Amino acid sequence: MPRFRIWWDYANSCPGRRAASSGSASVATGLVHGLKLVAVAIVAQAVWGMARTLCPDLKRAAIATLAAVAVSAHVSSMMQVAVLLCGGQVARAADPDRHPGRSGRRRAHEALVPNAL
User: Fold this and answer.
1) Gap between the Cα atoms of 65 and 59, Å rounded
2) Are 85 and 63 in contact (CB under 8 A)?
3) Both 79 and 117 in a single domain?
4) Residue ending a domain, choose from 34, 54, 74
5) Is there a single domain that holds both residue 80 and residue 107?
């Protein structure tokens, strides 16, 4: 509930916010503005929940932070692929017992089958 209150106070203090009038354009503008604020709050809460679930320890949080910085520094699709591959290798190197993995052609086909469906 406190997050809602913070967003509500922010919405009411926005400099571009106009007072509601009898025109339908201002009502639509206010409605769209309100929906945007709700969307931002929902996405922020989802990201916060994923961060707590997927990065519970310092190692994984550091990997996620470095990945976000790398992707933000160089915006391209190949950088995203490179960060994914490097993150997997760093995670495997950090805890080899947890990620034993199998190698070979069969393992590659097993990994590709779910993506093809």
Assistant:
1) 10
2) no
3) yes
4) 54
5) yes
Q: What's this model's pTM, rounded to 2 decimal places?
A: 0.51
Q: pLDDT digits over 70-95, tens only?
A: 999 988 889 998 998 888 888 777 77
Closest CA to 66 of 37, 95, 86: 86
Residues of the chain with pLDDT under 50: 20-22
Q: To which residue do tokens 């017992």 refer? A: 97
C-alpha to C-alpha distance for 45 and 56, rounded to whole angstroms? 16
**Residue 101, amino acid:** G
Total count of domains within the chain? 2
CA dist 8 and 80 (Å) reads 35
Chain centroid to CA 85: 18
- Token pair, residue 85, equals 């591959």
Neighbour-count burial for 91-115, b at 16+ CB within 10 Å, e otherwise: eeeeeeeeeeeeeeeeeeeeeeeee
